[in-house]
Amino acid sequence: MSLSLNDRVKMALCPDRVILMRFSHGLHPHLLAKCIVPCPEVEAASGWPAAVAVLREALKAPEWQKAATTLVISNHFVRYLLIPWNDQLSSDEEWLAMVRHCFRQVYGDAAERWECRWSGGGFGMPLIASAIDPELLLALHQVAQETGVKLDSVQPYLMAAFNHWRRRMVSDNGCFLLTEPGRIGLACFHDGQWGGLVFEPLPPSDTAAVLPELLQRMLLRLEMGEAPHDIFAFAAEVPESAWRQTDGPTIRLLPLEPLPGLPPEAGAEYAMALMGE
After folding, report:
1. Against a cut of 0.85, is the pTM above it?
2. Element (H, E) at 127
3. Record's superkingdom (predicted)?
4. CATH superfamily label, 167-274
5. Is the pLDDT of residue 260 over 70?
6. 35 pLDDT more than 80
7. Which long-range contacts (CB under 8 A, 24 or more apart) does 43-47 make?
8. Cα separation of 130 and 132, whole Å?
9. 63, 22 in Cβ contact below 8 A?
10. Residue 59 · residue 143 · CB < 8 Å
């Protein structure tokens, strides 16, 4: 395998596995290498340290060396909040204080330490904020330094996936639905601004049976005045039969594009890493 410093490595960190993919540089990147390394089941229950340990060992292999790298973090390891706009805030420092205050109100004093980021639709519009344990970020950068990997970007899964699909979600009143094993999220938008955000556990078995009721419960939790017209769903590991259409919003699936070197049936397993940019 011929490796170049201009190659791109895309990774994902999940509670039960680590995903790695290497792509060639250019307008039409080719998949050069891929692997999924499971976390030991007993250790995975302890949270992100087990996944970071697996990542550290995986990155010692030569096929992941000497390339720009993007890492997507599972929503299991991230907390999200919708932050209202405040005309009194102008600097990043003031917004950071506001975001941390909102997280503290929901999660308590532990949120004071979290690494917070936020993004929004523009002036006067609500923002979506994410929070990650700073020890996780420190551990990831230490792993990169130890293994000689250039870690360019660390991205929460919700934001990475939304940015990947945003041009396909044409609606004045819709939702972006995102699933991964064990977790489902719903982020709603209307008139160009965020309108609600909710996450729920996703049962690992019999997803098709529980998904319709689960989705209705999530829509009710959003407490929106008007039901969304469209739900854009990126749920690579959920069978299409689970999305049987019922009364209510139209569900529009966001399918992964075929990728040379990656069999269609394997796309769901690598979906999270593919969202990294």
Report:
1. yes
2. strand 127-132
3. Bacteria
4. ATPase, nucleotide binding domain (3.30.420.40)
5. yes
6. yes
7. 44/15, 44/16, 47/15, 47/77
8. 7
9. yes
10. yes
* Residue partners of 136: CB distance under 8 A and separation at least 6: 48, 52, 73, 77
Q: 42 falls in which pLDDT band (50, 70, 90)?
A: low
Would you say the CATH fold of 167-274 matches that of 8-76+134-155?
yes
CATH says 8-76+134-155 is which class? alpha beta
Question: Could you tell me the residue ranges of all domains in the chain?
Answer: 8-76+134-155, 77-132, 167-274
Contact (CB, 8 A) for 272 and 179: no
pLDDT tops 80 at residue 269: yes
CB atoms under 10 Å from CB of 82, counted, come to 18
The mean-pLDDT minimum among 76-85, 95-104, 146-155, 166-175 falls in: 166-175
SS3 146: helix
Residue 262, number of CB atoms within 10 A of its CB: 16
Residue in this structure with the two tokens 């941390």, named with its chain if needed:
100
Q: Can you tell me the distance from the alpha carbon of 274 to that of 11, in angstroms, rounded to the nearest whole number?
A: 8
Taking the alpha carbons at both ends of the chain, their separation in whole angstroms is 23
